[in-house]
Amino acid sequence: MIKFSKKDISKMGKTYRLNLINSCTGYKSANLIGTISTEGNNNLAVFSSITHIGSNPSILGFILRSSKRPRDTYINIKNTNEFSVNHIHFSQIDDAHNTSKKFPAKISEFDKTNLTEEYKKNWKVPFVKNSPVQIGCKYLNEYKIKENSTLLIVASIEEIFVKDEIIYDDGLIQLDKGGVTSINGLDTYTLPKYLKRIPYLKKI
């Protein structure tokens, strides 16, 4: 095996280090976060840091990188207190990745890609049409991670929309059945495959 010490990592070129550190922790979720500004401008951005925090109450979180200028996603969430999380189908990966481009706030990523907005009852924010799993979220809190000045955004899961054919009777969503992708590193999209299901081990 190849060994990388902390000293080795500190001496690496930026691109090599980014690729190594972003991929060494394993596969990450591939999601599109949909928001809307107070002026009514839609925003869509790809994220690979969304994670489960708790089931009761139902909470998720994601990381916002530090920036001198607050990102449109953050500004919109703070102003409206809501956003959508949309799993990326393998047919959407090129368009989803293109949302990472820095468009002016008044330009919607929906207008610059082949992705289509979808609206749900009681939600102002756009969801992504044909996304196998869509989650409506409400902002709860944020925590600054002082070690690198990033923000952990915490939100409640208010509604979940799932394609009928990918959910089990016991509530499990089989993501690979819905063509849901994941991200390896910064820019590599993968299609995970179901292997087996092992029963939850309860305390003896």
Relative helix content: 10-25%
**Termini separation (Å)?**
38 Å
Q: Determine the mean pLDDT.
A: 94
What is the H-and-E element order?
HHEEEEEHEHHEEEEEE
Largest beta-sheet details: 7 strands, antiparallel
Strand content: 25-35%
- Report the count of strand segments: 12
* Strand order, sheet with most strands: 3-2-6-9-10-5-4
Count of helices?
5
The radius of gyration over CA amounts to 18 Å
Q: In words, what does this structure look like?
A:
The structure is a single chain. The chain has 204 residues and is an alpha+beta fold. Helix content is 17%, strand content 33%. It is built from five helices and twelve strands. The strands form three sheets. A seven-stranded antiparallel β-sheet has the order 3-2-6-9-10-5-4. A hairpin with a 5-residue loop joins strand 2 (31-36) and strand 3 (42-47). It starts with 5 loop residues before the first helix and ends in a 14-residue tail after the last strand. The mean pLDDT is 94.
Topology of helices and strands:
Blueprint lengths: L5 H5 L3 H11 L3 E2 L1 E6 L5 E6 L3 E5 L2 E7 L7 H9 L1 E6 L5 H6 L10 H4 L4 E2 L8 E2 L4 E13 L4 E13 L19 E3 L3 E3 L14
Antiparallel strand pairs: 1-11, 2-3, 2-6, 4-5, 5-10, 6-9, 7-8, 9-10, 11-12
List the keywords:
single chain; 204 residues; alpha+beta; 7-stranded antiparallel sheet; 3-stranded antiparallel sheet; 5 helices; 12 strands; globular
Question: Would you summarize the structure shown here?
Answer:
This protein has 204 residues and is of the alpha+beta class.
